[in-house]
Structure formats: structure tokens, C-alpha cells
């Protein structure tokens, strides 16, 4: 083997042609070589059971339709009649390596085989024997042998610069979240359906040691390990039982359905767990107070996921206001345009459609907008709240003539802006990759279907059997589709919040601060805000802070990162003040949200005098 780590170019008389079995992450990685060096390597066929992945891969490599197969066996049949490629790249699931490797070796295909070779000793030997028998080249994707660090270490060891190698220590720190993602929740979590963790994750680490110790034969092997810290529970109560006996973690993240926040929050607080609690805190005033009292009693840190407090736009607006650059703030306007199709998806057909099974729309969708106003007006106490709103449109009396109970059987579906067929089915037909993303990913788990099920048929079945195919005028929804909230503060200033379903924009919040010396505002998703100075009459664009480069936590414009980072920092330093969405502040804005809903339902202005328990 050439141990020189620096890559050297080489030339080929003609491109090597390849079949790719498995168009997942590893299959895509290996075939990228063909895109970068088309004069050396060309992908001419793909076998992939997932339609969306197959179509995307096919387009990427310009593969003709007759060479895009649903299974490796279909591809094998054609290859038996006509050996139309030189090599096969096998990147199927771990337990499906042996059969295609042996079969294609028998057809004289050279093989690039994703690790592990196979999941049993017998299958590894069977691949070995098939490759030897048919005199083909096999490369197993032990990529770490090519790592410059690995090559350099072997060169130094082989050159005797270290003397005799007495011991090698190799650490593979998988990463807590990576292990949870792949080996607790993911494809490699269960030995019966995949293989054991050492083979799945570390067979190339074992290979590295064999690579470094190539001059010596291994004579003894021992291993110790267990499932110690990753426990998967069917319910939070099961987890609580174990945590009661052994407090095996520092914090608990509660992201259960809205109506199931209070009980676990109170229970884990009593065990001294710090808590990151998804908004809303709870769905009743009483439960919010109960959480508050449990957190105070047990002296733990609570952060409610009011992520918008961390939005660069929100932080910049507060800094300008607090610095007096706008003079006295007279009024704040905040608009939450939910998006017409988003509202239909979540609040008409979806999980938040019904107050009895979830909660009212203002709490579910806009408690962090109310919290934003409280955040901006932190120096003043809110004294009055009024609100108006209703379910205006999504009800049976507005159902078009001739409309059916479901979109798939509806004669007027093509004229309806809320068509489930347009939103979930037609969009995926145009771009199959959308099936893996929200909102289509919510309507059903396509992985639950047999791999032979066509993507379109899978979505059709979801729409036929589930709630997301229903006519928006025939659902059991009862939450507001439009609502306005007005706030008055003890300095005489006011603020208004509008939540509206009927918009093109989807959750692209817009706000304007009206001050006595200036005006400032813009959209949360933009790179800057507009600031007008009344004294100079000049407008300036104020740039906004960006999310750290490289983070994968880009939700809510990157504010998810800032939220979790502040919580982890607060717990690490045992300093609740580092959490801007802490106990008292979160309770305060939740109470204002309940006050707004009380005003809407009772048709009156709710004040600190009439309802003191709703104002802190």
C-alpha cells in the first residue's frame, strides 16, 4: 500500500462504470467521486427502494429510467443478462450486504462494500470466498486507513522511530447526541434489526488497530461494555420511576403534548432536575402556578422555550429601546402571520385544532409573541388587556357547494386553497424530497410502509385514513383563526398583537416600535432592521447578529441554538439569571395570555384591578 497521505492525480483511459445499491447517505458520499471526476468514474445505475431518494439520485447522476431499480435483485436480473457496468457500490443496510456482494461477485463485478462487510462471521467468510473464487477486486470502506493521522502513525511506527510499540490506545467518542440519534432512536438501535454497536460503529476502529499492528498477529481479545446510560421508556412515568431510585441525569427536557406539561414538570422538579420546558408552560392558570411553586420550592432552574426572546431582531429592538435611542416607546405593533396552509395543517386538521384536546390558539401559537411584548416592555407593568377574535372561516357553513368530506373525493378540490392533495401529494410529486420534511413528514411516517409501497400510494393512504385528508370545513376544529390583543402599560404606552391565519407569509413575524424620538422595525427573518431617527430624519439599516457558523440548530431562525446554549450555561454555572426565559418572566407572559383569552371570551377589558391573579 502507498502510505503517502497526499493525494496524487492519475489518469484513466475511460471512466469506470458503476452501479450503486442504496442511495442513502453513504451511497451518496461514495458516488460523489463520479461527479467530481467524470473522466475516471461514472454511475450508470441505482437500486433504491425509497422512491424520493431514488429519483433524486437518478437526476443527480443523469441515470436513465430503465437503470433506476426499486431493489438490488431487479438490478441483478438485468446485470445477469448484460454486464453493463464494471463495479458495484454496495451501501444497503448492514444486514443486506452479504447477498448482493456474493451475487455480484459471481457476475465478475468488482465491489466497493460499505462497512461492515456483513453482520455474521459466516457471511463475512462467504463474501471472502466468493471474491476469491471469481477473482474480483473488493474494497471495504474502512475509510480511516486513509486518514493522514493514521497513515503518519503507521509510517513512524514502521520506521522504528518509536522503538517497539508497547501499547496503542484508541478512543472513539461517539458524542452524546449522536449516539442518542443513531443508536438509541435510530437505525442501529437494535441488534436484531441491525447489528451490535461495535460492529456498526467501530469495525473500522478495530481495523485501524490491525492496520497499525500489521506485522503482528493478534492472539487474544477481550471486551467489556453494557447499556448503562441510555434508557428508552414508553412513558415519562416509567422514566420517573427509575429517576426516583437513581438521579441519572442533570436536566429533563419536556416536549410532551401541551396538556401533558404540568405533571412531569412538577414531578421532575421534586427530584431536583433542572427543566427545559417546551411552551406553553401549561394549559391552565392553575397548572402554570403549580409548576412555578414546584420550581421555587425545589430550587431548580427552569427555562421555558420562548425562543423568540433570543431572536437577533428581538434582542436588537430591546437594546435600542433600553438605550433610549427611540425616546419613550409609545406603541409596539407585532404581527404573527401564521400562513393560510400552515394554519389549515396545524390548527384545522392537526394537533392544535381543538381546545378540549389541546388548548386555545393564542396560547398554542402566540404565547411567545405575548412573551416578546413583555420582554420588550420589561420596565413597565401591564395593567389592562383586551382581545377580540373568533373562528371566522374554517367552519361548515363556509363549505363550498359540491364539496366532499375529504379532498381526495372532492369535485371542487382544484379551486380550494386548502386542498390536502395540493399541499401533501402534488408538492411531493414535483419534489419527492419534500416527503422527508415538514409538513408532509407529519401526516404519517412513510418508513412504516413496506419498501415496495410507492411513495404516492403511501401518502394517499395517509390522507385516506388520517385527519390530514379531511375537508377544512368538515373538521372538529374550534380555535380562533384570527385574533387581536391590546395591552396597556403603567406608563400609558400600548402594544398590539395580531395573529392571522390568512397570509402568504408563514410565521414571518413583523414588528414596529413607535417612539417619541424614532421608529424602528422590520421582519424577524431578515438580516437587518430599519431605524429612523426623528432628529436627523435619516434612516439606517441596523445589522442583526447571525447564528454561529456550523450549528445544525437553525430552527426559528437559529434561536433554538441560543435558547439551549443559555440553558446549558445556566445549569453549568448554577446561575438562573443566565436564562432570559426563566420562571417569573415566563409565568408573567403566560398569565397575560390567559388574560387576553378571558377578555375575548367574556367581551370585557381585563385589568389588574378586576383580575389581579393574572398580572404580576
TrEMBL record:
Domain Gfo/Idh/MocA-like oxidoreductase N-terminal, first and last residues per copy: 18-141, 224-305
A GO term for molecular function: nucleotide binding
InterPro entries membership: Gfo/Idh/MocA-like_OxRdtase_N, Gfo/Idh/MocA_Oxidoreductases, NAD(P)-bd_dom_sf
PANTHER family listed in its UniProt record: BILIVERDIN REDUCTASE A (PTHR43377), BINDING ROSSMANN FOLD OXIDOREDUCTASE, PUTATIVE (AFU_ORTHOLOGUE AFUA_4G00560)-RELATED (PTHR43377:SF2)
Protein name, as recorded: Gfo/Idh/MocA-like oxidoreductase N-terminal domain-containing protein
